[in-house]
Amino acid sequence: MAHNLSGYHRALDLFEGLVAGVARDGWDVPSPCAGWTARDVAGHVTGGQFLVRALASGEPEPDVNADPARFVAGDVLMSWRAARKECAAALTPDALG
User: Fold this and answer.
1) Distance (Å, rounded) from C-alpha 30 to C-alpha 37?
2) What is the pLDDT of residues 20-78, one digit of tens each?
3) Do residues 76 and 22 lie in contact, with contact meaning Cβ atoms separated by under 8 Å?
4) Disulfide engineering: 56 pairs with which of 2, 25, 88, 90, CB 3.0-4.6 Å?
5) How much is the CA Rg of the chain, to the nearest whole Å?
6) Is the CA virtual torsion 21, 89, 44, 74 positive or negative?
7) How far apart are CA 18 and CA 51, in angstroms?
8) Chain centroid to CA 20: how far?
9) How far apart are CA 52 and CA 60, in angstroms?
10) Continuous segment of H or E residues that includes residue 41
11) With left for phi above 0 and alpha for psi between -120 and 50, is residue 4 left, alpha or beta?
């Protein structure tokens, strides 16, 4: 069975565009999510890529809600891109089958 991931990839592209548009000093500002900074929100979504990878590969699932900023320590955009790349590599036809 072929899987069409175009909508998924469009969503990832849109998120990457948002991340790329945040100034370096904008990551520690409060977000609309109570108690979370912009970095925490980005970390939660980035951690979601590790969660998808874990589900595809049978690895233990990371808790993307506990200290989500850990997924984007340092350069948020580069952390996002690395997580996205690792997730994409795990989404093989066998994993999606």
Assistant:
1) 4
2) 999 989 999 999 999 999 999 999 999 999 999 998 888 999 999 999 999 999 999 99
3) yes
4) 90
5) 14
6) negative
7) 21
8) 13
9) 11
10) helix 38-57
11) beta
